[in-house]
Amino acid sequence: MSDIIRALRKVVLDAVNAQKLTDIVYGTVESIAPLKVRVDQKLLLEQEQLKLTRAVMDYEVDMTVDHLTENRTGGSGDAAYASHNHEYKGRKKFLIHNGLIIGDKVTMIRAHGGQQYLIIDKEVV
């Protein structure tokens, strides 16, 4: 390969690398309010730079349920407290507890330009 082609290839690669195209980045949650994620010794991401997916936040979902509760007993032997169950039906709200906590290891996508990061998931321990 000629020196001119090598030099041209290096210029092109340097230009592409300088663009800071989308990349996968790993970090550790250092603070929740405000949210801060440490990527390495020098880089601490602030809340303004971070976007979250549902995989790393608490959120509510509506679900339809249709089942019976488990049998329960109770009380003093009175017939009103005898073992029983009942229907549990309808559309119900449930809270999904996926929120970040201090120390969580997270996987992020660094956006083009390197100023915004999307936290896509956290390490399962």
Strand content: 35-45%
Biggest sheet character: 6 strands, mixed
Instruction: Give the mean pLDDT.
Output: 87
Summed up, the domain count is 2
CATH architecture of the largest domain: Beta Barrel
| Number of E-type strands | 8
**What's the CATH class of the largest domain, please?**
Mainly Beta
User: Strand sequence of the main sheet, in spatial order?
Assistant: 3-2-1-7-8-4
- Taking all Cα atoms into account, the compactness measure Rg is 26 Å
Question: How does this model look, in words?
Answer:
The strands form two sheets. This protein has a six-stranded mixed β-sheet, with no helix packed on it. The protein has a two-stranded antiparallel ribbon with strand order 5-6. The model has no long low-confidence stretch (mean pLDDT 87). 13% of the residues lie in helices and 42% in strands. The protein starts with a helix and ends with a strand. With 125 residues, it is mainly beta. A hairpin with a 2-residue loop joins strand 1 (23-32) and strand 2 (35-38). The chain is built from one helix and eight strands, in the order H-E-E-E-E-E-E-E-E. The relative contact order is 0.25. It folds into two domains: 20-56 and 97-125, OB fold (Dihydrolipoamide Acetyltransferase, E2P), CATH 2.40.50.140; 59-94, no CATH class. This is DUF2577 domain-containing protein.
Write the layout of secondary structure elements.
Blueprint: H1 3-18, E1 23-32, E2 35-38, E3 44-46, E4 50-52, E5 59-68, E6 87-96, E7 105-110, E8 117-122
Parallel strand pairs: 4-8
Antiparallel strand pairs: 1-2, 1-7, 2-3, 5-6, 7-8
